[in-house]
Amino acid sequence: MSAHCQVTGKSPSFGKTVSHSHRRTSRRFNPNIQTKRYFAPSLGRTITLRVSTKGMKVIDKRGIDAVVAEMLARGERL
Q: How far apart are CA 68 and CA 61, in angstroms?
C-alpha cells in the first residue's frame, strides 16, 4: 500500500540528501502512517484506517463520526 493518509490526504514528498561533499541524491520523505481501528457509532461497526499521526489528532479533535461523514462525502471506501 502507498504511504497515503485516508483522513488528511498526506502523501510522500521528495527532496535531496546532501552529503558532506555536497553531492545530491534523491530521497523520499514518508509520512508517519499507522494502521488504526476505530469504532464508528454512525456505521455501527469498527473500521480500519491508514492514518498519519496528524490524522489521529484530527479524529481526536473532531470525532470519528464527523471524519467518517467527510470521507464518505468524498467517495472514499471504508
A: 13
